[in-house]
Every structure is written in C-alpha cells, then in structure tokens.
Amino acid sequence: MFVSGGADYRIKASGGAEANAPFLLSNGSNTIPYRVRLSSDGSKLSKVDPGKWLEAKNSSTSLNCSDSNNTKVRVVVLDKWINGKPAGVYKGTLYLTVEPL
Fold first, then answer.
1. Quick count: other Cβ atoms within 10 Å of Cβ 38?
2. Count of domains in the chain?
3. Fewest C-beta in 10 Å: which of 14, 22, 25, 34?
4. How many CB atoms sit inside 10 A of residue 15's CB?
5. Which burial class, exposed, middle or buried, applies to 53 when counting CB atoms under 10 A from its CB (0-12, 13-18, 19+)?
6. CA dihedral 45, 49, 78, 86 (to 10 degrees)
C-alpha cells in the first residue's frame, strides 16, 4: 500500500456503499455470504467484519511498493454456504477504503 510520506494507514472493507453492508454474492433472490481477510503487514491475514477498520504499519513510500507485498486481500467462500444453492452467476461488490493515520 503506497502512502505519501510512508505513514501508517488503516483499511476497511464493506459489501456495498453503506459502511456496514454485509459481504454477499447474489443471483436474483439467492445469496451466498463470504468472508474477507485483510493483512496489515503483507503476511498474516485477519478476518474483518464489514465497516471495521484494520490498522496497518507497513506502508510504502514507493508508488509500486518496491515490487513487494505489504497488504493482501482474500475472499473466502465456505463449501457449506454454497451447498444447496442453484447453479448460476453470483455477483457482489467489495468496497475497500484506505486512509492514512
């Protein structure tokens, strides 16, 4: 994550425009929940709830982050959430908000 001056930052995720929108994939009236995991240091991933900030201390002063990873995002869908759902295309939106501290 590039931050001007290399300051610490924080990041949050939501499943829609509202800050606490749930993480959902939709196909008509059918929905599948998903989890979001974020890293604050480029390695350890932490489960985050919609709208909850995660503070991070590993920003980069380089626009391309010196070709290294200092933040990761992982989307997780469990088998038990998919079982019994009709086949089809499920879509959703993941909003990530980042701001310097």
1. 20
2. 1
3. 22
4. 20
5. middle
6. -140
